[in-house]
Structures are given as structure tokens and as C-alpha cells.
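Posting for a labmate who doesn't have an account.
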Amino acid sequence: MMTQYGHYIWLAMLLLLAAFSAVLLKNILDEEQISLYTDMTPDAYAQKIKFLETDETGHWKHLIEADTFTHFAANDKSVLQHPTITVLQNQDSPPWIITGNEGEALAGYDTVTLSGNVKAYQPAGLHSAPTTILTESIDVKQKENLADTDAHVTIYTPDTHIEADGMTVYLKEKHVKLHHNVRGRYVPAATPVSYTHLTLPTICSV
């Protein structure tokens, strides 16, 4: 039969155990909060940034510009606000200019994902017609010199209006491959365009 003194001992042990458990739980929660805070805390921030990539001869190939740049070290992610990616072509072709509301890149800038009101535009060149592509998201893969998306796209050239679900643009070759549900129509320009020696983008579906 347990004495009153024994009851006090057990009660004290239970109180100590409860206090130890509370301290342990608090430490675990604090560590999780610190980890979450670290993951969400940027280690670098800048405004009006420019990243320029050049080839082996020193000529620039890609230019990335953004209103703001935020980098997170935990996952090596960069977030860009209102980015513009300019992809230089050869001397006979104007560059592609690709814009969006936001951009994300993981572990460098080989692939930059643009989202929100994405527009890819190539002005008219000496032997090429202007091309405008509208979509909601696109992956710009700079080493492969292509842009790829599974989202709905709309493509405008001087006399055509084409829509599709998904697209791959080979930027250097100005070759567009449409993935699914391709539909288009001929839209005569208000002012006739002379197509002598003028090249439209090569568009095909898969």
C-alpha cells in the first residue's frame, strides 16, 4: 500500500516528465520554425539587375533584365520580377525578346521559367516577318536555345493567327513546333505586305 509520501514522489516525477516533454516539444518547434524561416529568407536582393552571357569570342548571347532579383540559398532559387530575356540571333536576324510578370530559376540561369502575361516577340528583320507569341508560362532554356511550354499559346504573324496547346520554339532557327489542338486562320493585313524575299517562321504540329 503506497504511503502519502509515495504519492508525492509520483506526482513530482509526473510533473518533471511533463515539464521535460514541454521543453523538448518547444525545442523541436523552434528548430522547425528556424528551418522554415531560413528556407524563406533571401540571402541576396537587388533592383534593376542585368545578367549577361557571352560566347567564347566575347559576343553576348543572352541578356536577362528584371526590376528586382531575390535569391534563396536554401534551394538556390532566384525570383525575378518583371523579367525580360533577350536572345541574340545571327547578324541577319533580330533578337527574340521574351517578357513576363515573374521569373524563376533554380541552380543558375540555364532554364528560366517566366509566368504571367508572357510575350515572346521577334521584330521584322531584313528577310523575316515579325512574330508575336502570347502565353501564360514558358521555360526559356538558354543552352539549348529554345523556349518550351505546355500552356495555351497564340501566335501572330502579319497574315496569320494561330492557337495551340503547348509549343516548342527553336529560337535560333525560328522554327515553331505546336503540340496539340492546333487551329488557325488567315487574317489579311490592312496594309498589304510585300513578301518578296520575306521568310515567315516555320510552324508545324506534332
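Reply:
Got it, the C-alpha cells are right above this. Residues 26 and 128 are 66 Å apart (CA to CA).
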